[in-house]
Amino acid sequence: MSAISREDLVHLAQLAHIEMSDAELDKMTGELGAIVNAIASVSEVASSDVPATSHPIPLTNVLREDVVGETLSIDEVLLNAPDSDSDRFKVPAILDGE
Amino acid sequence: MSNYTDELVDFDEALDRYDPVLGFEVHVELNTKTKMFSDAPNAFGDDPNTNVTPVDLGLPGVLPVVNKTAVEYSILIGLALNCQIAEKCGFARKNYFYPDTPKNFQTSQYDDPIAHDGWLDIELEDGEVFRVEIERAHMEEDAGKLTHMGGAAGRIQGADYSLVDYNRAGVPLVEIVTKPIVGAGKRAPELARAYVAAIREIVKNLGVSDAKMERGNVRCDANVSLMPKDAEKFGTRTETKNVNSLRAVEHAVRFEIERHAAVLDSGAKIVQETRHWHEDTRTTTSGRPKSDADDYRYFPEPDLVPIVTTAEWIDELRARLPEPPAERRKRLKAEWGYADKEFRDVVNAGVLDEIEQTVAAGASAAVARKWWMGEIARLAKAADKEIADLGVTPETIVELNSLIQGKKINDKIARQVLEFVLAGEGTPSEIVEKRSLAVVNDDDALGKAVDEAMAAMPDVVEKIKGGKMQAIGALMGPVMKATRGQADAGRVREIVMEKLGL
């Protein structure tokens, strides 16, 4: 059984503002489910005394001194912008943000 | 303008029937030189998108690296709030879709904040102390700044598009979250204000933030709910976002209490939602329902490794903590011997530092207060400046005072001298010399002036002879006039008495 329902996917698509057709939803529900199931197999190996990890190497405290470095030029900053206005990115008005 | 139509219940009436429960999320922008995860400058007011690196833009393949100073500042805040510091903590991605972050997530902390379980004693204006429990203080990053264009000026409603400046994206933030605050009753709005003021004062005192609310360095989200007097279960809360002045925090809490009470009285339910604060009308309006976009799908940030704090590191930071502002006030009040109201006025005028330095420079606490709360405050008001910006130094006050003590000048002349000092004419002594302002206390000159005054006012002289000593004051005017205000008033009094054989 898939761990991801169609409703889950509709919800995720909405959160990510991605428009998906019915056919895409059907296909992705199965595929995402398969991915989640595959990753879930990790829990079969890891017992409860193994702490969750988000990083493969046991490193801690990778810190940087508070020293200013190089910044990008305005041209570089805006290079990939779909639209811009003078020195700022131009985006469609989006209502649901804070 | 917000078109506000909700019913309200009178504040006192509302709190006769309901108990308010408060909660605050205060965001503090740290004043590190660089951002939280990139070495772009953390600076306010620069041209748009000039303080931006590939990390701040979330470009593919970039690797964020944590700013050590930001971590230390966060620990300092945690210690100042009497928190436990996590031995190990990490970062998480808070996913949301909005163009203020080009990454589509905010790097934050989720279930392992760097500081947790603290408290802060808040002193209200009448001296009552209220303990606020701190749930957590966690590290995160600020978002970019959107400017909405077209439609009504500056408002998202009706806007055609938005312009984005990412200079602020990635600026280090510490978010301080309280536990639910119960029992404040009718003092809830006052406590709200005092709490945010205390946080602002602490981070300023620590030197970890510029703490300017008008610049958004300290920002408050205020949670309010009401429950019937005898209830044990909290009511449904609303979260009023971005209440960014002390006055607004107080008003927003008061308003939400009045609004909640009206909704509950009518038998309806409070909708759990965010509210927008409107400074112009001092009201809130509905934002978005809380359940809607609250699915942030947090997960551990794979690009950052955990922070581990050793006891040595924390001890080292603890040693850097300055005296807490509340304790300092208590100490200074005792040292200076001011009355409650005197001290409160000094605090409200914001001249604690000035008085402390003036006392350290050699003046008595009473003299220091007289100057800073008197003439200097008056000059600042006249110049429409902050007292601190006027440029009066403690040394000037000490020198003026010793000139008065040495009877070289009187109070009135000293005030004039201060104005000449501020005009850049030199030190008080130099000015007294240059402008020949030293008081006249040579008895010949004073005696002559007194003789003339007495001759002109025989009725006054009779009164003095009859024992009405305060009548001497009537002679002072003419004597001062004759000596261009430079007579030593005490000496004049003595001469009058001598001449009358009293």
Give a quick rundown of the structure.
By secondary structure, chain A is mainly α. Chain A has 4 helices and 3 strands.
CATH architecture title of the domain at 1-47 in chain A: Orthogonal Bundle
Sheet/helix structural class of chain B: alpha+beta
Continuous helix count of chain B: 18
Q: How many alpha or pi helices of chain A?
A: 4
Q: Quick one: overall form of chain B?
A: elongated
Estimated radius of gyration of chain B = 30 Å
Oligomeric form:
heterodimer
SSE pattern of chain A: HHHEHEE
Number of strands of chain B: 18
Helix fraction bin of chain B: 25-40%
The chain-level mean pLDDT of chain A equals: 87
Helical proportion of chain A? 25-40%
Tell me the domain tally of chain B.
Answer: 3
Q: Return the average pLDDT of chain B rounded to an integer.
A: 91
What is the class of the domain at 1-47 in chain A in the CATH system? Answer: Mainly Alpha
* Sheet having the most strands of chain B: 10 strands, mixed
Rounded to an integer in angstroms, the radius of gyration calculated over CA atoms of chain A is: 21 Å
GO molecular function, one term (chain A): ATP binding
GO biological process, one term (chain A): regulation of translational fidelity
Protein name (chain A): Aspartyl/glutamyl-tRNA(Asn/Gln) amidotransferase subunit C
InterPro entries (chain A): Asp/Glu-ADT_sf_sub_c, GatC
